[in-house]
Amino acid sequence: MLLKGTRDFLELIKFEHTLFALPFAYLGMLLAAGGWPAWPVVVWITVAMAAARTLAMGTNRLADRVLDAQNPRTAMRPLPSGRMKPRTAWTGTVIAGGVLVLAAWRLGPLPLLLLPIALLFLVGYAFTKRFTWLSHYILGFTDGLAPVGAWVAVRGSLFTTADLPAWLLLAAVTAWIGGFDLIYACQDVEVDRACGLHAIPARFGVPAALTLSAISHVITMALLAVVGVALNLGWPYGVGLMVVGALLVAEHRLISPDDLSQLDVAFFHVNSAISITLFLSTWLATARG
């Protein structure tokens, strides 16, 4: 029973996608340390990132279980389909929250002090589409806290002029994730309208959402370029950034207002490649010293 409950919970939160979210945190970690920090720091950043994502996804699935049941795309998820009891999801989510608190404590005083702000977004994001069209960018901001948290864990600071790259990373990830969440939301326009949810594609239409997504990704590229210049990351980072730009162009060429058939490829595969490319190019740049 315990094994089945654990397996169902990991399916619920798509735990395998954590591997593609980790590069967000590692990006901030590498740039803050100028390379790999001490391994205990790496381990606790990894634990914190996995726990934070689990907490956020668990909360999101619990908050949306009634809405998911009304959406053919999501109706067969473990909670709305009845394959998992809410109690199991609550248990896994609360445990993840406890692990996150432990990791923040192990990473130092400032990560622990700032944790309540992170928790506000990790838990609160799930409810934002009920009252604001900015929910796409609130999700982006929430994900953007990953590199900021890792930066703080390494540097122990966030509010000096030397910490400007952390804020640039926050803005870049906010625009990037917000931009591709706009793409993802295009497939749920009719359901979102029927349920009275606030999503930009549902309110302003798919063409407007895709245009705003493209603008967001241009902003992402500009901010990432500024990070590279500010930290003098050199050609490995520059090459990586060119690859990321090409991937973003490919992402937007895969979809159009009249054809969303390649949306899963654009959303999952391309963005996974972007996150891994950013991580590897930053790793090479910092390894050069």
Annotated CATH topology: Tetracycline Repressor, domain 2
Please name the CATH architecture.
Orthogonal Bundle
The major pleated sheet works out as: none
Helicity range = over 70%
Structure annotation, total helices: 14
The CATH class, by name, is: Mainly Alpha
- Alpha carbon gyration radius: 19 Å
Q: How far do the termini sit from each other?
A: 51 Å
The percentage of residues in β strands lies in: under 5%
Describe the structure.
The chain is built from 14 helices and no strands. It is mainly alpha-helical. Helix 2 runs antiparallel to helix 9 (164-185) and helix 7 (109-128) runs antiparallel to helix 8 (135-155). It has one domain: UbiA prenyltransferase (Tetracycline Repressor, domain 2, Orthogonal Bundle), CATH 1.10.357. The longest helix is centred in the N-terminal third of the chain and has 25 residues, at 39-63. The chain has helices spanning 2-12, 18-33, 39-63, 65-69, 78-81, 86-107, 109-128, 135-155, 164-185, 189-195, 200-204, 206-230, 234-253, 263-287.
Kindly list the characteristics that best describe this protein.
mainly alpha, globular, Tetracycline Repressor, domain 2, 14 helices, 289 residues, 79% helix
State the gist of this model.
The protein has 289 residues and is mainly α. It is built from 14 helices and no strands. The chain is globular and about 55 Å long.
